[in-house]
């Protein structure tokens, strides 16, 4: 399933927002506490999955290694993890991905507004603080469509990480079969709280 994501860059505005397009229910927006992401981490805490080091990115991203999760190749993603389980003759699955978009200079005073397209149900958006900067956390369910045939739960977290004079947009995306959300939610919460940003030495 492909989720359409649109990025709109606006100069002269210092703000951040996330909006759902074609939402079937009125969006619920609230304020949330600071996420426990480890920014500027000195080293990994415990066993971790990590993104590949790149010369154009002065940091790596790390997620805790959890039982049943495997790294899976996914084009255009810094890191993709997947878990699949059998439940009474059917298969439930969940995927967690990390993305880093093109950086922008903090002095340019540009903000990014992200629109997430889809006919969402139970859409909820929270303003969060990550790495001492504003970000967003959004959750919702996409009803069954096409060949998938099952409702899919989605969770999105986005924030900017400041490295030198550049802001790097970081995004975590979660997709899971909605019927198995309770099964995967503890792991999802552990990934969200266990994300580490480790500057290159």
Walk me through this protein's architecture.
The chain has 201 residues and is mainly beta. It has a single domain, classed as Protein Transport Mog1p, Chain A (3-Layer(aba) Sandwich). 7% of the residues lie in helices and 52% in strands. It contains 1 helix and 15 strands. The strands form 3 sheets. Strands 3, 6, 7, 8, 9, 11, 12, 13 and 14 form a 9-stranded mixed beta sheet that branches. Strands 1-10-2 form a 3-stranded mixed beta sheet, with no helix packed on it. The longest helix has 14 residues, at 181-194. The radius of gyration is 17 Å and the shape is globular. The termini are far apart. 27% of the residues are buried.
CATH architecture: 3-Layer(aba) Sandwich
* Cα gyration radius (Å): 17 Å
Helix vs. strand class: mainly beta
The helicity comes to under 10%
Mean pLDDT: 79
How far apart lie the N and C ends? 38 Å
Quickly count the domains.
Answer: 1
Named CATH topology: Protein Transport Mog1p, Chain A
Shape: globular
Spell out the CATH superfamily: Mog1/PsbP, alpha/beta/alpha sandwich
Helices and strands, in order, run as EEEEEEEEEEEEEEHE
Instruction: State which percent range the strand residues make up.
Output: over 45%
Number of strands: 15
CATH class: Alpha Beta
- How is the biggest beta sheet arranged? 9 strands, mixed
Individual helix count: 1
Residue runs with pLDDT of under 50 for 5 or more positions: 1-26
How do the helices and strands line up, and which of them pair or pack?
Elements: E1 5-11, E2 17-21, E3 28-31, E4 48-50, E5 59-64, E6 70-71, E7 79-87, E8 90-100, E9 104-105, E10 110-117, E11 121-130, E12 133-142, E13 152-163, E14 166-177, H1 181-194, E15 196-199
